[in-house]
């Protein structure tokens, strides 16, 4: 697939770069990296995108990373997709005006799809990434919300069909069971999504360990991959991964 994009991820909690395991806030791993310096290293390695997450706001609301977003915009050429705690059109506008290329909408996209569909029309499909993080339970792909702490009655397939029909372009999907586990991405999930909504540009998220996993996600129909724990721990070379993505 042409145009495959890599999204190095910086997840922030209480001012620190962190990673969670399977969305559990009690399993936080902290990293010593300063977030701006980390973003600059990713840019120097050839990354063109950054995935920036406000984990505090994901649970409590109220996006808090505007100062960091402004610093990244001022000191790198990275395009940033970012979210956490996005609750209103004013939130979307402030984040875009603050330097983001796309706003990531998660919990609200599950709870209030009509609201998010209106944002797609207002801001345009290139400015919104819908993130439907999913967990397999009772034979279905369910959609937890509020930083994965609350269970929703909505199912992945039904909601995804609705967004795709309304013109959604960018879709991030995390298998929560794979998140932070370095167990490889759920390729079957992404193949199913590609069949269900072939016009979406799907970002694989959760479990990516190495460049082979990136290649496998691309082969499964994804248009991009979010790189988290494995990148933070130096398990593969980002510059090599970028060269491979550009060559695909």
UniProtKB/TrEMBL annotation:
Recorded metabolic or biological pathway in which this protein acts: Amino-acid biosynthesis; L-histidine biosynthesis; L-histidine from 5-phospho-alpha-D-ribose 1-diphosphate: step 4/9
Organism superkingdom: Bacteria
Record's catalysed reaction(s): 1-(5-phospho-beta-D-ribosyl)-5-[(5-phospho-beta-D-ribosylamino)methylideneamino]imidazole-4-carboxamide = 5-[(5-phospho-1-deoxy-D-ribulos-1-ylimino)methylamino]-1-(5-phospho-beta-D-ribosyl)imidazole-4-carboxamide
SUPFAM superfamilies linked: Ribulose-phoshate binding barrel (SSF51366)
Stored Gene3D superfamilies: Aldolase class I (3.20.20.70)
Catalytic residues in the record: 11 (proton acceptor), 133 (proton donor)
Cellular localization per UniProt: Cytoplasm
This protein's record includes keyword Cytoplasm: yes
EC class (word): isomerase
Keyword Amino-acid biosynthesis in record: yes
EC number: 5.3.1.16
GO molecular function, one term: 1-(5-phosphoribosyl)-5-[(5-phosphoribosylamino)methylideneamino]imidazole-4-carboxamide isomerase activity
Keyword line: Amino-acid biosynthesis, Cytoplasm, Histidine biosynthesis, Isomerase
Classification via Pfam families: His_biosynth (PF00977)
First-listed, main subcellular location of the protein, grouped into a coarse class: cytoplasm
Homology family: Belongs to the HisA/HisF family.
Protein's recorded name: 1-(5-phosphoribosyl)-5-[(5-phosphoribosylamino)methylideneamino] imidazole-4-carboxamide isomerase
Protein species of origin: Lysobacter yangpyeongensis
């Amino acid at each position: 697939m042409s145009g495959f994009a890599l999204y190095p991820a910086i997840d922030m909690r209480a001012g620190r770069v962190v990673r969670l395991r399977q969305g559990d806030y009690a399993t936080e791993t902290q990293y010593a990296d300063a977030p701006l310096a980390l973003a600059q290293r990713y840019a120097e390695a050839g990354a063109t995108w950054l995935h920036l997450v406000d984990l505090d706001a994901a649970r409590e609301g109220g996006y808090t990373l505007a100062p960091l977003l402004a610093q990244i915009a001022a000191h790198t050429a990275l395009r940033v997709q970012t979210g956490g705690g996005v609750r209103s059109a004013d939130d979307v506008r402030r984040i875009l005006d603050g330097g983001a290329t796309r706003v990531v909408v998660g919990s609200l996209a599950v709870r209030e799809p009509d609201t998010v569909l209106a944002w797609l029309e207002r801001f345009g499909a290139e400015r919104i990434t819908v993130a439907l993080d999913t967990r397999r339970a009772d034979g279905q792909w369910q959609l937890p919300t509020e930083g994965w702490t609350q269970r929703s009655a909505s199912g992945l397939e039904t909601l995804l069909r609705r967004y795709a029909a309304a013109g959604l372009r960018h879709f991030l999907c995390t298998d929560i069971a794979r998140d932070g586990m370095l167990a490889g991405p759920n390729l079957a999930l992404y193949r199913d999504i590609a069949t269900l909504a072939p016009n979406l540009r799907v970002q694989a998220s959760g479990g990516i360990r190495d460049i082979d996993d990136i290649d496998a996600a691309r082969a499964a129909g994804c248009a991009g991959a979010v790189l988290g724990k494995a990148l933070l721990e130096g398990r593969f070379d980002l510059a090599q991964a970028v060269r491979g993505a550009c060559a695909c």
